[in-house]
Amino acid sequence: MLEFFRNLGKSLAAKVLLLLIALSFMLWGVSDYFLSGSDQSSIVAKVNGQKIGGAIFQKRLEDARARYTQVFGAATAEKITQEQGFSEQILNSMINDVLLSKEGRHLGLQVPDAALVKKIESIPEFAENGHFSKSRYEKLLVANGLTPAQFEGMLRESMLLAQLQAIPQVTPLANAGEAQQLWAWSQEYRDEESVEIPFAAFAQQAVPSAADIDAYYHAHLQAFQEPEQVQVQYVLFGPQAFLNQVGDKTPVTAAQESGHASAPSVSVAAAQSGDKGREEKARQLFNAQMENFKDRLFSSPKSLAAVAQAYGLSVEESPVLVAGQVAATGPFHDPKALALAFGKAVLEGKNSEAITLPDGNLLAVHLVHFQPARARPLAAVSPDITQILTTQNSEALAKAAAQQVWKAAQGGKALASLTRNGVFRYQNNVNLTRHNVQGLPQGLLPAIFNAPAPRGGVPSLGMAKAGQEYVVFAVTRVGVPPAASLNPQVSAQISQSLEEQRVQLLLAGYLQDLRSHGEVKVFPGQVAKFSH
Question: Alpha-carbon distance 401 to 150, whole Å?
Fold first, then answer.
């Protein structure tokens, strides 16, 4: 993300847009956030009792998306604004603004008109021939959809917040020595040698016994439970059951279906209207029979046959249904239908009650077969347990072997002689850097660079787990480039970066302190609602 900003063109438009992006994350005016007496459903957060409304939050999101689109283009802006947490970042910035604004009022801070004018006149993008141009100022604001009053309000708020942000900042300067130290750390190089002890080297020794497998099985029975399973008969009852009772389609519709109809006409529209009327009559008949359908389920509880016969319905049979797992398709894709199949009445052998599915049809079920939850037999899970225990045992054996190698190295033996006749891999790398792993196992480099430097010619030993192996390593040399090779410009950039990071940390701490002494309540459901 930072690279996008750093790599932006240096055009006037880009500079103005970047300025507007920065300002758009400031207040449009704290009063715009508050919704006194508003309905709770339109509030996304409360800050010390003051409400942040969903409408202004939504507008801030839209403004941010629009600004990013102007600067980066639609595709990149879409990627940025769709990142997880983007909406929360915008809301947090609004909460921080309210907290800071309240703090500013408490401290009596102000931005005089003269200071505001001076700030505007100092912005290079509004200058012509080295001097502020009112016409240029107004044209650029219009081009970006802002009035002078809006821009000046945003800028005033940003200047007020800048005063507040300066309050907690003890001068975070970084001297040349700190820059040199950080640069030396980043450019450090090390020599190391290592012995890699893979888990796989102990696979044959790690195979568990039958007794081990049995003990693991009984100790972890819960992990091998099969959930309840059920198979049911079911009927679906809806308006479709009454279509035959309200007549056939009109002749015009039939002609259309046979392929002899001409272009759409008034008669076609009438046919379509007739079909809708027919469907509406069927729905009315369905609605009138819903209670009778439910009564028949109750009066003949041992079978669905009676209710199916009464309404000309088909009795279907479900696939095997697993508790907690909706079917991929069909009526039991609905969690309510799945729960119905496992209902108490059904498991007692009675017809279920009728429930309404999302498509409006009624569903009723009757038990065919029920399988209670049970543990899978040992024979079925024995291969899985064997793999689990083999992996665990292999790791334990590899770790024990690595500890033996480490102790031997501490006793003065060379790592190259501790490979068990080549069973373990030995490596010797020189001039390793934090950016060059030179074929080391993944995850080992941090351990090597966190190890202390060797002293008095004695290597610094360490042991680390790296993927599917343990590694015993020895750091034999640590070096850094001479200070004279640090470019003064690089040193200045490092110092600036350190200062900026310190400012950010201090400001973050200041905001956190304001939050800890305030009352901030966020309504996640409303945030999600207004984020779309």
Answer: 71
- Mean pLDDT, residues 429-440 taken together: 87
Instruction: Average the pLDDT over 260-284 and give the result.
Output: 62
Residue 389 structure tokens: 């225990």
**Whether the Cβ atoms of residue 432 and residue 159 lie closer than 8 Å to each other:** no
Percent of the chain with pLDDT over 90: 45
**H helices, E strands: number in the chain:** 19, 16
Strand partners, 429: 192
Least confident of 72-81, 185-194, 388-397: 72-81
**Contact yes or no for 188/452 (Cβ under 8 A):** no
Listed in sequence order, the residues at least 6 apart from 296 whose beta carbon sits closer than 8 Å to its beta carbon are 306, 307, 310
Query: Which pairing describes strands 460-465 and 355-356: parallel, antiparallel, or unpaired?
Result: unpaired
pTM exceeds 0.85 for this model: no
For residue 471, the 8-state DSSP code is E
As a three-state string, the secondary structure of 416-437 is: HHCCCCCCCEEEEEEEEECCEC
**Residue 63 near residue 17 (C-beta atoms within 8 A):** no
Q: What's at 124, amino acid-wise?
A: P
Dist CA 418 CA 328 (whole Å): 56
Which helix (H) or strand (E) covers residue 233, if one does? strand 229-237
Question: Could you tell me the end-to-end alpha-carbon distance of the chain, in angstroms, rounded to an integer?
Answer: 22
Interval 279-283 mean pLDDT: 89
Query: 477 CB contacts (<8 Å, ≥6 apart)?
Result: 190, 191, 430, 454
Banded model confidence at residue 255, pLDDT cuts 50, 70, 90: very low
Residue 178 near residue 498, CB atoms below 8 Å: yes
Contact between residue 296 and residue 261 where contact means Cβ atoms under 8 Å apart: no
Overall average pLDDT of the 147-167 stretch: 75
Answer left, alpha or beta for residue 308, where phi above 0 means left and psi between -120 and 50 means alpha.
alpha
The answer to whether 475 touches 446, Cβ cutoff 8 Å, is no
Contacts for 88 with CB less than 8 Å, ≥ 6 apart: 527
Residues near 68 by Cβ (< 8 Å), separated by ≥ 6?
21, 76, 77, 80, 81
What SS3 state is found at 120?
A: helix
Residue-wise pLDDT for 466-490, tens only, equals: 999 999 999 999 999 888 888 888 8
Cα–Cα dist 469/196, whole Å: 7
Is the distance from CB of 346 to CB of 323 less than 8 angstroms?
A: no
Name the token pair of 350. 């009675």
